[in-house]
């Protein structure tokens, strides 16, 4: 019995090591955004250069160019600013509970895009 215990413990330790390693890797991926080797710059994001293109590609079909599904027009900056400041924008794109998941019926935004929007919100959701 004792003979079996030692290798079993060794195996368990090895498994823990593997799990710890893959977890460490996971947070690297989140930091880098998309995890496929491309770097994802999420520092000093601005509305015009970084956030607007994401919204135009993923949200304007229903919330821009005259579309206002759910009564929301994201090409109205004042509206967008309010949603950014009150947590709704972040809630819908991260599929947080209590918010309708956006884009509705579509795939969740990439971690990279979510991080970009988050940085812009954290920096005060400026019209820059
Ligand atoms: C296919 C159409 C469609 C797309 C694309 C879409 N939405 Fe929506 N959106 C809706 C509809 C419909 C509602 C109303 C849903 C509800 O109230 O349950 C809504 C509601 C919202 C709301 C209001 C939530 C609330 O609690 O009041 C926000 C904010 C929002 N969408 C943001 C976004 C963002 C940001 C994107 C892009 C990442 C996006 N939407 C993409 C259809 C869409």
Automatic annotation (TrEMBL):
Q: One matching Pfam family, short form? A: Cytochrome_CBB3
Cleaved signal peptide residues: 1-26
Q: Which InterPro entries would you find in this protein's record?
A: Cyt_c-like_dom, Cyt_c-like_dom_sf
Q: Extract one GO molecular function annotation from the record.
A: electron transfer activity
Keywords on record: Heme, Iron, Metal-binding, Signal
Keyword Iron belongs to the record:
yes
Q: Enumerate the spans annotated as Cytochrome c domain.
A: 54-121
Name listed for the protein in its UniProt record: Cytochrome c domain-containing protein
Q: Identify the species of origin.
A: Chitinophaga parva
